[in-house]
Fold this sequence. Notes:
This protein is mainly alpha-helical. It has a domain of 25 residues. 17% of the residues lie in helices and 0% in strands.
Amino acid sequence: MKAIDEPRLETGPVAWCADGDEALDYLFRRGRYAGPGTAPRRRSSCST
């Protein structure tokens, strides 16, 4: 978390999950994170 506080790093909101199962539900929008507003995505500024 210390790195996120550095001014040169731009981040969106940080999601906290209780365990790995909840983290996977968040990433794959399952269960309570199924709605688009419960697991918001930010467009990546990275180019490929």
